[in-house]
Amino acid sequence: MRSDISVAFRAVRDAVALGGAELGDTGPALREIAEAEARHRMTGNHTVAALVGGTGSGKSTLFNALSRSSLADPGHARPSTRQASACAWGRRADELLDHLEVPHARRMFQDSLLEREGLRPLDGLVLLDLPDHDSVEELHAAQVDRLLPVVDLLIWVVDPQKYADHILHEVYLRSLTVRSDAMVMVLNQTDTLDAEGREAVAADIRRLLAEEGLGQVPVLLTCGLTGEGVDVVRDLLADSVQQESTADRTAGAALDGIARTLLRRVGPPAAPLGEDILGRTVDELMRATGVEAVAASIGTAVARWRGGALAQPQRPSRAAVAAIGSHWAVRAKADLPASWSQAVDGALPSVEELGERSEAAVTSVPLPPVAVPRARALAWAGVSAGIAAVALLVTGLALSWPAAWTLGTPAVLAVVAASLLVSARASRRTVAQQRAGAYEQDVRAALHATAADVLAEPTRAVLDRHSRVGQALAGVLRPSTGEAGATVSTD
Ligand SMILES: Nc1nc2c(ncn2[C@@H]2O[C@H](COP(=O)(O)OP(=O)(O)OP(=O)(O)O)[C@@H](O)[C@H]2O)c(=O)[nH]1
Ligand SMILES: [Mg+2]
Q: At residue 115, does pLDDT exceed 70?
């Protein structure tokens, strides 16, 4: 079935618009797209079949039989057809027939709705009766040149007398061997042969075709006068209508070429922006703003009895911020081609902005208090001392020390006091660690949010656009000419 080539046209156009300046000068590509589209609009709705061959073989007679008309002019005076005739089924093809220079008086239209049901499969067909090949060469070479890019089926008509001459008509043959699958050989005037003669001539034609490398071309037998065999030709035309048209194939190939050119400016798919890249940048920002030193000072001050001064986060130096920004760019851009890499640079903040935003993120996190609530420290100390005292007493009594009470009491008091001191200190240290850790974590979260906002988001937008452009262009590559995106290299 026919593919919807207009979707592919739209996809390439959209990709060009989305790619913008990063695709470089897209003027030539857009012009090519417009030309290919105009060409396709003209022919794409039609399947074009042409009757070709030497003079007197019966092309005009077969044209009339196939179109059930008397438009073409079969005749005895040779060559009889000086101008092409055309019959369009189901849809008019005026633009195409203008392009092929078929005179208005020699066009006919078969509205299949008026035809019997059996003819509906020819909807979209344009059948041409051309002058014989000598006349074509002399007078209508330009017409043939225009026909070849759009023709879907060449019906090559030969007669039993001159078939060998026709097949061996080198120049014509070569110029028309566009694709052997778009050709059919019709041996006409079979009424002039007996059954044996038909078989012999058909076999000889097959041999000659094979010698020309056209062994795949089917050979049909017809009689234009009686209409014998004409239905088989009609069936073949109906098949041709169902297949991808040459116009679609031509347009598809043009789009394939355009997409390949543009894909070279897109390069291979870029690696997605990983969370690790963001993590490393946040680490660098933490160091540049001195957050680790601030956290360490919080730890020391809280752990000490008498507190201490806290270090303040610093505004990161310009050089440090510039280095962080460029590390980011290098990691994020990886293998992007130059124009896309510049697009990433353009989307990133200035060194000043990155510095200011980082400083703002760090200062948005308040420094924690240094004081440790007394009740909390005492509670810890009390519990520890109680456990120590009870343990000592129980041990003394269990071993039945004689002086368990007299010596035991001061000992218990001493242990209790020591426990109070040790556990109060331990409690302060725990609180200090917690506060320093929480502060560091909060600053990290703030810097992460900032880096995600000013670095990751704009970078991702460019990478996303790059990937969408690449996918759209790879989507129109023709499978026969290579796998989508497989061998694309950068400019
Ligand atoms: N006996 C016989 N004569 C035929 C047959 N088909 C066509 N003719 C006759 O052959 C002559 C040439 O037929 P055309 O249809 O004009 O041949 P053509 O290929 O269009 O010739 P040009 O227009 O000169 O290229 C006419 O007199 C036809 O009546 C056929 O199957 N059998
Ligand atoms: Mg003719």
A: no
Closest among 450, 448, 460 to 344, alpha carbons compared: 460
Burial of 345 (0-12, 13-18, 19+ CB in 10 A): middle
pLDDT given at position 143: 74
Ligand having the closest approach to the CA of 74: 1
pTM of structure: 0.67
Give the pLDDT of residue 59.
93
* Per-residue pLDDT at 162: 84
Which ligand approaches the C-alpha of residue 55 most closely? 1
The CA radius of gyration of the chain, in Å to the nearest whole number, is 44
DSSP letter for each residue of 30-83: HHHHHHHHHHHHHHTT-EEEEEE-STTSSHHHHHHHHHTS--S---SSSS---S
| Exposure b/e, 444-453, CB count within 10 A at least 16 = b | bebbbebbee
- Provide the Cα torsion 440, 445, 449, 454; round to 10°: 20
- What local confidence, expressed as pLDDT, does residue 489 receive? 37
More confidently predicted of 413 and 300: 300
Class of domain 45-244: alpha beta
- Asked whether the beta carbons of 333 and 344 are under 8 A apart, the reply is yes
Taking 60 as the threshold, does the pLDDT of residue 488 lie above it? no
pLDDT tens digits for range 216-226: 889 999 999 99
Ligand 1 binding pocket mutation candidate from 61, 158, 159, 194 (most atoms within 8 A of CB): 61
The ranges of the chain annotated as CATH 3.40.50.300 are: 45-244
